[in-house]
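User: Fold this; tokens only.

Assistant: Input:
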Amino acid sequence: MQLAERVKQDITVAMKAGEKERVSTLRLVLSELQKAAKEGDGDEVAVLRRERKRRHESAAAFRDGGRPELAHAEEAEAQVIETYLPSELSDEELRAIVADAVAETGASSPRDMGQVMKASMAQVAGRADGRRVSALAQEALAG
């Protein structure tokens, strides 16, 4: 089942259960998915990751601004979005992918970071944040 269809069904279930915050979040997610589909961006997981990232950034900004109640609401939305994302890779799995990429590309110094990142991100397939991959790649190339 396509992700947008699953979100539509979950909106109906949440409406029947009276979960107003969840309905609101799911409607927003559905809107973003439909907008991306119209623009020709069929990568639904990327859309969800972008939306989750926005929520985390907003929550941090609200916390810094002394608005913890708004930060909490943004974090709650991020948690709803996370339920539709594939599970994240563990650090061990990610280290193995980066090590394979280093071996595959023959990388030996930090100058080879781009090659390692390209090979690693292809294997990660959206199951880890690029910053995590980058940090582990730097670690692998440094020592």
